[in-house]
Amino acid sequence: MRLLFLIFLSTLQNTLAQNVVIKTITVEPYMRTQNYEHFKRMVLNSSDSQAQYIEGFEFDWGYRYSLRVKQTTIGPLSDGTMYDYSLIETISKTKVAYSTTFTMSVDPLRYYENQANITSNNTLKILNDSTYLYMDLVELEIPQQEQSIFQANNDNGVSFVGDFRFVNERRIRLIQIK
Questions:
Q1: Which of 4, 104, 141, 175 fits 163 for a cystine, CB–CB 3.0-4.6 Å?
Q2: Mean per-residue pLDDT of the chain
Q3: Which domain holds residue 141?
Q4: Same domain, 75 and 46
């Protein structure tokens, strides 16, 4: 009986400890690649919060957002997650200039190791001779002068960091590989 009481008390304490804060955050106009538990994924990039995903929020490349969100303390979880975010309202959605340059990592391998049950470990799908779909989220335009380095990295599963510019809400152009 005492054990049941301790379990109940612990559960009640965890439930009551869940802290909810309403706050305004900024989401940058590009996403970033994150090394997750056993694979890589694209997540939101926020300079003033830990938000990587916001429930109810639809992201468009090339727009900087100011959002009012509900931040709920849920962690720390085993993957380091501390908060859960959900959208209350979009305060602003501002298109950045096409000339805006940003730095992003591109990793051609989704999983850290090859596994028998994984049909594809590649994050880049070729659309034409100079354009690739990255992580099923954004198209990468690769200029002719960067094609050979890009292709060698892709063929060998080597990630790279590059400078990019926006083309539209779905496409970015590589300026240079660093």
A1: 175
A2: 87
A3: 101-177
A4: yes
Predicted confidence (pLDDT) per residue in 41-90, tens digit? 899 999 999 999 999 999 999 999 999 999 999 988 877 788 999 999 99
Domain assignment of residue 5, yes or no: no
28/46 same-domain check: yes
The neighbour count for residue 117, using CB atoms within 10 Å, is: 4
Cα–Cα distance between 60 and 63 in angstroms, integer?
A: 6
Looking at the structure, do residues 166 and 148 belong to the same domain, yes or no?
yes
> Strand runs (DSSP E) across the chain, as ranges?
20-27, 32-35, 40-43, 63-73, 83-95, 101-106, 124-128, 131-134, 138-141, 160-166, 171-177
Which is it for strands 171-177 and 160-166: parallel, antiparallel or unpaired? Answer: antiparallel
Burial of residue 17 (CB within 10 Å: 0-12, 13-18, 19+) is exposed
**Would residue 53 be called left, alpha or beta, if left means φ above 0 and alpha means ψ between -120 and 50 degrees?**
beta
Q: Which residues pair with 109 in a beta bridge?
A: 122
